[in-house]
Amino acid sequence: MKLHDLQPDKGSKKKRIRWGRGIASGHGRYSGRGIKGQGARRGKTKGAYFEGGQLPLVRRLPFKRGFTNIFRIEYQEVKIEALAGLDEGATVTPATAS
User: Fold this and answer.
1) Using CB atoms within 10 A as the burial measure, which of 4, 9, 39, 78 is most buried?
2) CA neighbours within 13 Å on the CB side: how many for 29?
3) What is the CA radius of gyration of the chain?
4) Please, is 27 exposed, middle or buried when counting C-beta atoms within 10 Å of its C-beta (0-12, 13-18, 19+)?
5) 51, β-bridge pairs
6) 51: number of Cβ within 10 Å
């Protein structure tokens, strides 16, 4: 094998498409953008979830919002009137607090 025998694998090198170079190229006239409309204009395209101005599905559905805190601590309410009746130094539990 010599240096002039070396070549890339079949199909590994692909020629880039030259848009807007005449009808014969297959990518002329509208250059794959169609006729008029939002997609035919210059600039950035809309986001993946954009639905033409309609309220997106993501915002229409009420579920799956927020998150559940796995470190949440649940507290028991204790009223001061309930503590007044206890002895000094007594342990307060949910049963004695109510």
Assistant:
1) 78
2) 6
3) 35
4) middle
5) 54
6) 13
